[in-house]
Structures are given as structure tokens and as C-alpha cells.
Amino acid sequence: MRTVSKAIAGLLTAIVTLAACGVPVQSTPEPVEPGSVPSELRDGGQTPSPQPSATTHKLPLQVNFVRNNQLVSIRREEPAGTPADRLSTVIKDLIAGPTKTEQANGITTALPPGLTLSIVELQGTRVVLQLSGDTEGRSATENVLAVGQIVLSATALPSVDEVTFSRDGVPVEALLADGALTTDALTAADYASLRAR
């Protein structure tokens, strides 16, 4: 009898304690919607680790334009994807040119209006870009800045170290920052001296 009394006293104490804590006491059970149950309780206490997704987060990209005959890097936020996707986005942004806000801040482009670029090959860390459109009648300064814009923008991606150009499948000579012509692979170091200080 004394054991039953202790059990009843313990039960009453628990009810009073729960009531004092603000936990509602129900006389009949009610169903719980599955969506309102915390995932830790639904999945046996194991919280699933988030899966990385190439399309759900954004990574910064750098696109190079011109201010006062020097190259300046502009950060752009773009959806992540494969290296080829990200390179395509960089090329698209280069061809589109600086935004109106950037133009208002003195940012221009050395790329000629009729120029188009397409990815021929992305092999390892080297990319081959196909040039098309009219690039004649431009000064050496404009040409070297244009090449520098492309090379510095492409090599700002972690997946690209070298850029070469072709036109109709034939390698194209490119101007280096020192004025020399080359068909060798171009790197960021070749145009580092053109960066704004």
C-alpha cells in the first residue's frame, strides 16, 4: 500500500512540475503532423550532413575590365557549376562588358564590339578559345589590354592556368604585355604588369 502511495505521490509531483514549466497536459493523445517533428527525432537522432550542390550556392568570379589603360578585376557572383560552366559565364560577362554602374565609375572594355569567344577545348588547366569577329584597326594598346582582360579573367578561375587562342582552327599570335607576339600558352604572369596598382 505504501508503494502505491509513493507512486501516486510521484505522479502528482511530475504533473505539478510539468504544469509549472508551461508544458500543456492533455487528457487524450493527439496525432502529430510528420512535418512538425524535428529531424533529429524522425531520423533516429542522426542529422544528415548537407550535400554540396553546384547549383545551390554561389562562388565569386573575377572579370577584368579597363580603367585608365590598366586592368581592374571586378568581382561578380555567379552560380557555381562545372569548370566549363564557370568559364562560359566569365566569357559571357566579358563579352557583355561592364554594367552601367561600372561604366559610371570609369570602367570600360578593350574588347572590340564584334568579337565573339567560344571554348574549343578545356584540357587539364589549359583552355583553347576560338576568336571570331572583326579585330582589325585597333591600336597595340587596345589589343594587349583585350588579350589581358581575357587571360586574367579566365585564369582567375582555379581550374584554368593557361589560355591559347585560335581562329578557324589555326593558332593566333597574341600580344604580350611587353609588346612581343607569341602563340605560346598565355598565363596571368604575362599580363600582371597591366594590373591597376
Question: Can you describe this structure?
Answer:
- By secondary structure, the chain is an alpha+beta fold.
- The protein has a domain at 58-194.
- Helices cover 29% and strands 24% of the residues.
- The strands form three sheets. A four-stranded mixed sheet has the order 3-4-5-6. Strands 1-2 form a two-stranded antiparallel sheet.
- The model is unreliable at 11-23 and 44-57 (pLDDT under 50).
Provide the descriptors you would attach to this structure in a database record:
197 residues; signal; 4-stranded mixed sheet; two-stranded antiparallel ribbon; globular; alpha+beta; GerMN domain-containing protein; 29% helix; GerMN
Topology:
Elements: H1 2-20, H2 39-42, E1 58-67, E2 70-79, H3 83-96, H4 100-104, E3 116-123, E4 126-132, H5 140-155, E5 162-167, E6 170-171, E7 174-175, E8 181-182
Parallel strand pairs: 4-5
Antiparallel strand pairs: 1-2, 3-4, 5-6, 7-8
Strand order of the largest sheet: 3-4-5-6
Q: Regions with pLDDT < 50 over 5+ consecutive residues?
A: 11-23, 44-57
Overall strand count = 8
Measured by DSSP, the beta-strand proportion falls in 15-25%
Shape: globular
In sequence order, what are the helices and strands, one letter per element? HHEEHHEEHEEEE
Report a brief summary of the structure.
The protein is built from five helices and eight strands, in the order H-H-E-E-H-H-E-E-H-E-E-E-E. The protein is an alpha+beta fold and 197 residues long. Helix 3 runs antiparallel to helix 5.
